[in-house]
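Sanity check

After download, print the first record. It should look like this:
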Amino acid sequence: MTHKEFVEKYNSGKLNVLINRTYALRTISADYLPRRYFWAHTFWSWIWFLSIPAGIIMLFFNIWVGILILFFISFLGGKAVKKSAMQFVLQHALEDEKFFKFAIESKTIVIESIPEVSKDLSI
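Expected structure tokens:
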């Protein structure tokens, strides 16, 4: 599949794109993406990482705020950071043909066609 076909089919909703989370994180760390993605990922990773001690400290002052920080920011923040890395890889694959080829070859992105469903429901 060429990059142009990939972009057209993805935008029309005819593709299911699977992104390997581990490879996506490695791709960002290995500097394959533009710096804007790297810095955005680094910023939110640090926010997530620093929320853990902030939540623990807040437990001593206001237990409910500490619990909220520990649960929502720490738990959900980690998932959000990983999901955003996958989204960065997909977004850059749509923008850059060279990176698209790299992502396919390294199995960071796996493409599946969505089978067309017949609209004729008659028996």
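If your output differs, re-run the checksum step. Summary of this record's structure: The two ends are 36 Å apart (CA to CA).
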